[in-house]
Amino acid sequence: MKLPIASLLMATAVVVTAQEAPVTREGAYWVGSVGDSFGIAAQARLQVNTRGNVTVRREAGDQVTYRVRQRVRAANEEQARALLGGGVKQVSSARGRVVLELQPISAGMVKTDIEIGVPAQVSMVIVQTDLGGINVADFDGAVQLRTGGGDIQLGKIGGTVQCFSGAGEVIIERAGGAINCTTAGGNMAVRDAGGSVALSNQMGGNIRVDKAAGDVRAHSAQGMIEVGQAGGAVFADTQGGFIQVGSARGVQAESMAGTVRVKNDSGPMNLAAMAGNILAELLSGARMQDSSLVAGTGDITVLIPSNLAVSVMARNSTGGTPRIVSDFPEIRMTPSKFFQAPMVGQGSINGGGPVLNLNVSSGVIYLRRK
Predict the structure, then answer these.
(1) Taking the C-alpha atoms of 87, 93, 99 and 103 in order, what is their torsion angle to the nearest 10 degrees?
(2) pLDDT mean over 316-323
(3) Residues 246, 264: contact at Cβ < 8 Å?
(4) SS3 148
(5) Beta strands 161-165; 179-183: pairing state
(6) How many whole angstroms separate alpha carbon 165 and alpha carbon 135?
(7) Which one of 94, 160, 282, 292 counts the least CB within 10 Å of its CB?
(8) Which helix (H) or strand (E) is 79 found in, with range?
């Protein structure tokens, strides 16, 4: 059944009514708009299935409100009505989940914006939109979001966040719980997470996490990865771009083409740069564990506090005259005796401790005193 936007079909499990709304002229556009509201129980989950740009905002009271606004350029009102097409709205509920179906039927040139007002008593919002982005400015509960092609922008979210974008950025200001998001292409950024963070960029784009209370897992096909502070360990890998970690309790990082720069509070470091330098800084009082740093084409530089107890095993396989430069007399050098043979440096600083394995194929190893 096809109805113009001016008479969007209203359907529920019990009642079907028509809703009249005029098509008006706003500048160069013809605009059609409809909306309604319905009650929702406390702690219920709200799911919205639609197509278009979706904005979720906080609503007072116990009613979910919605408004669908479509606009299009057309020569006259009759042509505009034909382009705006029609749509269906249906509300159903089962087992604590209320599902709102908003499926506008319109031409591809029509821009559709949907605004959903959600009361605070809703425990979770689930949004699935085929076309367009999703914006949630402020919500106390958890969110699950999926868009076929558009940006996801979140402000202050009280609970956990799960999201997927077929082609768009993912920007999250704050979440009270864990974050797990994926995009096929676009930058990803998290300012503050009250739990762990898992971000995956499948095609290309940068990833930035300013602060996370738990572990951070970040994967980018082509882009840089930055983590400011992690309450747990950091696991990061990228095919093209640098990796930088400001503070973490253990780091596993791999870059195929870029620098790896890490500061570590505790736990192991397993760092690899196939074509790029590695700079690792051990913090004073760090509770480190056995660690491995491997560089293909590039230098390895480790900054070691003067009071840190650590055992070093360094190996440089650079052809010709390999170099290991150390500020610590405890590190004994074994020069290569044959052409193309590796140079080895090993020793115990402050009596020794966890083992720091360093391996360079083409570059220089620097052991610097902080």
Answers:
(1) -10
(2) 90
(3) no
(4) coil
(5) parallel
(6) 12
(7) 94
(8) helix 77-84
Over range 310-318, report the average pLDDT. 96
Cα 104 from Cα 83, distance rounded (Å): 11
Over residues 132-173, the pLDDT tens digits come to: 999 999 999 999 999 998 999 999 999 999 999 999 999 999
Helix (H, G, I), strand (E, B) or coil at 246: coil
Q: What is the pLDDT of residue 15?
A: 33
CA dihedral 343, 348, 350, 354 (to 10 degrees): 110
Residues 6 or more apart from 82 whose CB is under 8 A from it?
A: none
- How far apart (Å, rounded) are the C-alpha atoms in residues 241 and 224? 4
Phi-psi region of 266 (alpha: psi -120 to 50; beta: other; left: phi over 0): beta
User: What residues have CB less than 8 Å from 300, skipping those under 6 apart?
Assistant: 277, 278, 280, 293, 358, 360, 363, 364, 365, 366
CB atoms within 10 A of CB 208: 19
Give the domain ranges of the chain: 1-41+53-129, 259-370
**Residue 61 region by backbone torsions, left for phi larger than 0, else alpha for psi between -120 and 50, else beta:** left
158 or 15: whose pLDDT is higher? 158
pTM: 0.90
